Each structure stands twice: as C-alpha cells, then as structure tokens.
Amino acid sequence: MNSFLLRQVARGVLPVAVLFAVSLLLRGHDAPGGGFVAGLVTAAAVVLHALANVAPSERARRPRVLGSVWLGLLVAAGTGLVAVAAGGPFLTHSHFDVGSGSATIHLSTTLLFDVGVFLVVVGSTITTLAAFAGGENPR
Amino acid sequence: MQTILIAIIATPFVGALATLFLSPRWAGRIALLPPALVLALAIPRWPAAATGETNIVTIPWFPSAGMTANLRLDHLGAFFVLLIAGVGLGIVQYSRAYLGKKATPRFWAALLAFMGAMLGLVLSDSLLLLFVFWELTTLASFLLIGMDGQSPEARAGAIRAFLVTGAGGLSLLAGTLVLGQIAGTYDLSSMPARAERILASPARDVALLLMLGGAFAKSAQVPFHFWLPGAMAAPAPVSAYLHSATMVKAGIFLIGRLSPIFGASPAFQPLLLTVGLTTFLVGGWDAVRAWDLKKLLAHSTVANLGVLTALYGVSPPAEVHGGIVRGELLAITNHALYKSALFLLVGWMEKVSGTRDLSILREERWFQREPVAGVLIGIGAISMGGFPFLLGFMSKEVFLEALLEARFPGVVAAVAAAVVGGAMAVVYALKLCVSTFWGPKLPPDSRGYRRASLSRWLLVVPAVFLLPHVIGGIAPGWFIGSVLEPGTHWPAWIAVWHHIDGIFLLSVSTLALGVGGYLLWRRYAEVPSQPETQIAFDRLASTVLGASSWFTRAAQAGGHPRYLVVMLVFAAAAAAAAMRGGSPPPRPGAEAWSVDLAAASLPAAIVAAGAVLAVLMQDRVSKVVLMAAAGYGLAVFYVLFRAPDLVLTQILVETISLLLLLLVFQRLPRLGADERSRGQRAMHGLFAAALGLGIAILAWASGIHPAARPAGAEQLALSLPEAKGRNVVNVILVDFRGADTLGEITVLAIAAIGVVALRVGRARREGA
C-alpha cells in the first residue's frame, strides 16, 4: 500500500476530511452529523494517511492517541457534572445565544458533550486500527 | 458507641490497605498497630458487656427491603473481639519473627483483612452483614493457606478449604434469606422476641438446617471436618490464628447467636449434641493416629470444636443467656489459647528440629536441648488432655457436669462418648509432650536452624498465651467467675480445683483410660507406609471442578461458531416467541413507510448479491469485501427511508470495519479447505436460514404492525422546545439519553485499552 498515488491522495484527503468532520460535529444538533460520525470520519482519514505515509514498523509505536480517549471521557462526564454543580440533575444541558439578529450563534453544552464523544471515538478507533496496522507481517 | 464499633471493624482494614504500600519491614511493624488499637478500644467496654449490657447501633442499609447494617456489642461479641484482637496481636509479633522475609506486604494485608472481617462478623447484628463478613473470612483464609503458591499441597489445601467453607457460606446465605422471610427481620437481636412465630413456621427446619450447615462447615464438624487438616499447609502462625483460635470458632459463634432463637425447637439440641459428640470422637481418633505434629493438632482442634458444639446441645435452653451457655466462654478461651500456643510451639520445634514427624522425633531426646519449649508444650498439652491445675481441667469438668445434669434419652451414650473422647485427648496430649521430647537417643545437630539464629519471640508469644491457663487453673473462681462469665451462676466447686464427686470420678477414669491408651500406642503404633490422604474428598473436589469446567466450556466455547449460534438462535427464538400471539391488523398509515418498489429493487439486489457471493467465495478478503458491499446496499435503503444520519453512520462503520478486517486478515494464515463434516455444514446452513427468516419476519412485522406507543412522535415533538435541537437523532444521543451515550463511550474506551494491552503491549515487548 505504499504507492505514490496513494500518498498524494491521502495527503490531500486528510485536511478536507478533518474539515468535513468538524462541520459534521458543529452542525450535529440541528442537521445530520454529530460526534460519533465526525469521529469516524477523522479516524478513517488519519488511518488512510498512516497507511500511505508511515512505515509499517513505525505504525504500532506512532499513535499516542489513547490520551484523547481519557480526555474525551473527562469532557463528556465533566459536562454532566457542571449541571450537578449548578444543582440540577446529571447531564442537564444549558443553552446560550450569543449576538443578536441574523448574527446569532447558538451555543450549548450539548456541543461540548459531543466533543467528548468525538474524542473518544477518534482515540479508540485509531488505537484499534493502528494496533493491527503496525509491525512486521507475522505470517 | 457507633464510632467505637465502626472504628474496631475499620482499623484492621485500614491497616491492611496501608501495609500494601509499605516495605516488608515496615509492613510488619505497622501490622502491630491495628490489633493493639482494637484492644485499647475494646478492653474498657468489657466489664459492662460481661455483666449483660448490650449496645445496638442502628445503621440503615437498604430500608425499603428491610435490610440494615446494625451492629451489636454484647457479652458474646465483646468476648470474641478481645479474643480476636488479643490473639491477633501475639500472632502478628510471632509472624514477624517466624516468617522473616517471607512475610510480604500481601501476607500482612491478608492477615489484617481477615482480622477486620472476623471483628465485623462478631459485631454484626444484621444477619446479612454477618454473611458478608463470613465470606470475607473464607476469602482471607484461602489467601493465607495458599500463601505459598508454589507448593501443590498448599494450593490443594487452600482450594479444599475454600470449597467446603464456601459451600457452607452459600448454605448460610440461603438459611439467612429463609429465616429473614419467616421472621420478617434480618436483625439477630429482634429475632428471639419473635421465636414463637419463627418456630410456628413450616419452613423452620429448613432455615435451621441451612444455617447450621454453614456453621458446621466453618467449624469443621462431621461430615465437613476434613478441610481443616488440609489447611495445615499454611504457616504456623496462620494455622494458630485462623484454624484454631478464631475463624473456626465463627460457626460456634453463629450457633450461640441462633440458640436463643431456635433453642426451643425440637431438632436444635439433639442435632448439636449428636454432631458435636461424633466430631469429638472422629477428630480424637484421627489425632490419635496422626504422626505429623501439626496434623495431630488439627485433628484435635476438630475434636475440640465438637465439644464446643455439643455444649450448646446439652444445656437447658433456660440457661442460655445472650447466646452463651454456661462454660462456653471458658471452653472457647481455654481451647483458643492452648491450641494457638501449641501451634506456635510446634512451629518453633519444626525450626529447631527440622521436622514435625513424630516417627523421627520419638527416637530423640529433645528436652535436654529445648527445656523451655518442652515445659511450654507440656503445659499446653496437659491442658489439652484435661489434667488438673490448668484451665483445661475446669473446662472438661463443666462439660461433664452439664452432661450429667441433662435429662434426655441416650444420656449414657453421650457420657460414654465424652469419656472415650476425653481419654483420646489424653492419648494425643501425651504423644505431643512425652513422645516429642523423651526419646532414647540424643538429637542430631545436622537438622534444623541454629538456635542462635531464631528470635526469642517465638517462645515468648506462646508463653503469654499460656499464662491465663496457669492463672485460671490456680484461681479458677476468680478467673472464670469474675473475669470471663461474671453474670453466670456458678456452682461452689468452681472456686477451687479439687472436689470429690461423680464428676471428679469420671475425670479420673478418663485420665486413667487415656494414660493406658497412650502406653498401648507407644507399644503397638506403627508408622503408616503412606502419608494420610483425603482421597474421597479429593475425588469429590475434582468432580466439582470438572463439572464446572464442563459447564464453562459449554457456555464459553472459545470459538466463534458456537458463540454466534448460541446468541443468534436465542435472539431469533425470543423474537419468534414474541410473535407467537398472532398478528394484529396492519397499521392504517403503513403506506407512509413503504418505498417505491422499483427504486428499492436496486439496493435489494446489491444486498442479496453481496450476501450470496460472500458465502460462495473461498478467501477471506473477498468475503469481507462482499459483505461490505451488502452493507453499502443497506445504506441505500436508509436513503430511501430518508434517514440521513443512519446513512452516514452505516457507510462509515462499514468502511472502518472493512479496513480493520483487512488489516487483521493480513496477519492470518490463508483459509484452508472447509473441514466441516457434511452434517455440520447442514446444521450451520439450517441455523443461518432459520435466523435469516426470523429477522426477515421481524422486519416485515415491525413495518406493518402498529406500535403500541410510538416513542418517535414524542421525541420529535419535544426535540426543539426541550433540547433546542432540530436533529432528533443527535438530541436523543446527547440529551435525552445522554447517560446511555456516556456509558457507551466508556465501553469504547475500555475496548481501546484492551486492544492496547493485548496487541500493542505485546508488539512492544517483542520489539524490545
């Protein structure tokens, strides 16, 4: 899988895919998308990039993304705890509108929770795939 | 009081936790603290508790189910607290000297955890709490017996003890539930008041037998007595502490707690007396035949536990005060102290002489070299044999008196059993003190440790344990009547050791019989050619283990085909069972769901072609690619049903799993020829077809049948006003069912750690 064409494609796809994932994440609450799907898109792009551009012997050592799993769990659970700190039940979300008129941006803690989901999905998917992509072929 | 009781239970557990993080040296030092602290807390409470003051602390646990975690400090409980902490303190000091470097932090943690569990057990007023601590002691005992995991004997002994006492624990749990249901409470202290109601219930005997089953297993009564000698693979201090002084007394404690409840039941006392005396005889006979000094002590412990059980069987129920029969505390103190001292002294002798095999020791004259140990073992042994001037004598007298005063059919047989058992106790006591020390030849220097290398604590601790025996033997009236059981009415003769009546004559004839028996043993006993075993039990244990591993293999086959078949057939059967009731009429609005057949035929063809080809193709890569094709076909269906979120997810999941499978497959060998038999293939085909049919019917039925209460409409209506989101799928995921999602991503995280542990960790080790 180490071809020039694949390398070029992977290089081009990665930023586009990440942008697409971010847009999926941001619009998730109102249109198709969300943290889970965005995480899968990102993971797929990163793995494609790794398969094309990273030597097999390096792959198993390279991804240090397990941290993003912890961070994601922390963010998601922390979002829920914010509500508890405010006296409400766990995982009660709050919403804010910033700006006015047509320039209003809607913000809410649901997005933060979705970011947590996103981080966990990215971390665990890449970790799993990389675990099998790396190293010598034992056959 | 609440704080004190909780502190008594918690201190050893805190100590156990602390020792885990310390160096072995400091762990041993710190381990002295918990028993000392518990003693300091408990001793000031003793005078009040001994005269009958009872403190009950109410701690709600699960109020709606009537469960409490109540604690109680009364005479019996306080006595056991002092016993556990007092002997525990000595045992810790002895272990530090005896085990040396072998005493790892893990050992200290297990020992202290055992101490805490035992304290919790004797302070529990709630039967449920008692059960929890009961099981904890079983667990700790398992860890301590099996401390030397390298030795097959230790492992077998640990497993045997665990199986027997664990099964007893289950019996206790069942009995607890039955008793709790009959009584309407799980609090032991409120049960005696409801004794009439309990005894009137038809389930009374079931509850009694189950509870006693647990007690008998723990206290090594016949027919569960065989685990205790096997537990002797543990180091000497562990044997002394768990298997003579405290844990095996837990069953006796439970019987004491039950006696005010079941005392009037017709089965209670005869059962205890019969089992107790049988155990006394069986244990005594085994001890007479034993050649290993430690086994001898173990069998004699079994015998003595029989006496403790029998004592509850003879005293009239009216004389049971707060779960204590007259002489019970005396008997327990007596046995706990001399037996643990003897275990410790045998540990010393093993170090000094390099063996505990009586067939070797009886040829050697150890007294000249070890006079102190000889005298101490002598004191312990003659207390065990029930000779005058020591506490053991008083204990035996009290037992005989209770037997003689009791009026029940078969009293003659019971007295005869007591005399024969007592005579056997004299035999093995003499074996222990005379044969070990007074052989014909001088002992060799070649075996054992050098005397100078051994700590003096190995003799000091047992000497301290034996001190109450001497005091109690010389001044029994003060020791028993004022310190141990002040609330009890004692006969006048307890004040002095000598008195001449029927009891005394029985005592003397017991001693004479025993001495005669010992002389016969010296003359005729032959060393068995093979070591003693518990063959019947080992066969039973291996049957149990075999059955459980068969069950494990059946349920957890370790192979994909079996798992899939079991899970999928179960799912299909459950779905089919749900539809058995016949089909209600199609929903009126069902047309809204249906799709254009012409448009749907294309994805349907893709799915069908993918599925069929995946079966026909021979190599793995083609199979998974075709399966992915079927998955993409499914995504087109979602497009037709206007479910964009599902489309996105389906495509991405399909892609990523394809990628993962391809990466995995490059590491697997090529698929060989199909080795399944024709019948197996037909079966698999049948399962697959049945499953496909079941799912198809399910899909069809859910499409045309009206849902009883469609959840979707409600969520759709609530999505924007409640959660301010237009995408109801995402609103459900992050808001309405946010906690579920949190759980799911936690599972993902755990799976990722698993992959790292299994795969990446291995790659790193191999690379390194």
UniProtKB/TrEMBL annotation, chain A:
Pfam families: MnhB (PF04039). Residues 6-126 form the Na+/H+ antiporter MnhB subunit-related protein domain. The keyword Phosphoprotein does not apply. It comes from the Bacteria. The keyword Signal does not apply. The chain crosses the membrane at residues 12-29, 35-55, 67-91, 111-133. It is a multi-pass membrane protein. Keywords: Cell membrane, Membrane, Transmembrane, Transmembrane helix. GO terms for cellular component: plasma membrane. It is found in: Cell membrane. Belongs to the CPA3 antiporters (TC 2.A.63) subunit B family. This is Na(+)/H(+) antiporter subunit B.
Automatic annotation (TrEMBL), chain B:
Residues 124-418 form the NADH:quinone oxidoreductase/Mrp antiporter transmembrane domain. It is a multi-pass membrane protein. The chain crosses the membrane at residues 76-95, 107-123, 129-147, 159-186, 206-228, 268-288, 372-391, 411-437, 457-480, 500-521, 563-581, 593-617, 624-641, 647-665, 686-708, 742-761. Residues 681-758 form the MrpA C-terminal/MbhE domain. GO terms for cellular component: plasma membrane. Keywords: Cell membrane, Membrane, Transmembrane, Transmembrane helix, Transport. Residues 606-670 form the MrpA C-terminal/MbhD domain. It is found in: Cell membrane; Membrane. Pfam families: MbhD (PF13244), MbhE (PF20501), Proton_antipo_M (PF00361). PANTHER family: NA(+)/H(+) ANTIPORTER SUBUNIT, NA(+)_H(+) ANTIPORTER SUBUNIT A. This is DUF4040 domain-containing protein. It comes from Polyangium fumosum.
